[in-house]
Amino acid sequence: MHWDTQRYLDRHGFIIERGQALADLLAPQAGERILDLGCGTGDIAAAMAERGAQVVGVDASPAMIANASERFPRHDFRVADAATLPFEAEFDAVFSHAVLHWVARAEDAARGIARALKPGGRFIAEFGGHRNCEALETAFADALKRIAGRDYRSPWTFPRLPDYTALLENQGLVVRAAWYFDLPTPLKGEDGLRQWFVQFLPHHLDGLDAATREAVLAATEAALKPAIWRDGAWWADYRRLRVAAEK
Ligand code: BEZ
Predict the structure, then answer these.
(1) Rg of the chain's alpha carbons, rounded to an integer?
(2) What is the rounded distance in angstroms from the CA atom of residue 16 to the CA atom of residue 86?
(3) Cα separation of 219 and 121, whole Å?
(4) Contact 199, 8 (CB under 8 A)
(5) pLDDT tens-digit profile of 47-59?
(6) Pick from 37, 221, 232, 235: most CB atoms within 10 A?
(7) Spacing, Cα 239 to ligand 1 middle (Å)
(8) How high is the pLDDT of residue 183?
(9) 82 contacts 99 by C-beta, under 8 angstroms
(10) What is the pLDDT of residues 164-219, one digit of tens each?
(11) For residues 143 and 201, what is the distance between their CA atoms, to the nearest angstrom?
(12) Dihedral class, residue 56 (left if φ above 0, else alpha if ψ from -120 to 50, else beta)
């Protein structure tokens, strides 16, 4: 999918702020070699490098890597697919924030992560867990079908916690801690919800005429307003899965 990197920075910068908090859990040490898997616009990789780590940031999106390389030209950013990682026992840690739900081949990604780590290396990740964004996807799917006659197909995989920890352990990682928690997330401003759909599901809206597109977004807002609009923001029903594992 094509990423609108400017919209991402302008409207969804909270993802970067949360990634910084996850990086604190990883606690990168000076001199460590760290892989940021799905580095997006590169902000977290750059912050970890500021702490003295040698960071390689990879992302499947050429637009994201172009943005990261332009904004942080001293750092190492590369286009790579999470399901076919090319690294072999070379990282002290693999870090991944808000990315793995995009990777349908979760087992291949886990295999590549395990292979990329040195013995004793750590893996810290957070992404969408079971029923993440369920209200958002249900309302959007209903509006898309009713107004545009299109079937919605989710581009995401939101695993249950025990399934995901088993998948990691099957690849030889030892899960030290795992969490599954609700994280209602404010999408600021009256247009915050539609910005979210336009950013993350653009392919479902592509090719619709302007009036139909507007009707789909307006109907989605109307369906969700009673449940998730409060205090001047839309509250997305995020549910997170966070894991800390070691090789
Ligand atoms: C998430 O971080 O949970 C997420 C972000 C964008 C689209 C879907 C899920």
Answers:
(1) 18
(2) 25
(3) 47
(4) yes
(5) 999 999 999 999 9
(6) 37
(7) 9
(8) 97
(9) yes
(10) 999 999 999 999 999 999 999 999 899 999 999 999 999 999 999 999 999 999 99
(11) 14
(12) beta
CA neighbor of 133 nearest in space, from 241, 238, 240: 238
Report the CATH number that the domain containing residue 30 is assigned in CATH. 3.40.50.150
pLDDT reading at 1 higher than 80: no
* pTM of this structure: 0.95
Its domain, for residue 177, covers: 5-246
Structural domains of the chain, count: 1
Amino acid at 225: K
Give the residue, by CA position, lying nearest to ligand 1 atom 3: 128
Report whether residue 152 contacts ligand 1, using a CB cutoff of 6 Å. Answer: no
Concatenating the DSSP letter of every residue in 219-245 gives HHHHHHHHHHEETTEEEE--EEEEEEE
The Å distance, Cα 173 to ligand 1 centre, comes to 25
Q: Give, using CA atoms, the residue closest to atom 5 of ligand 1.
A: 98
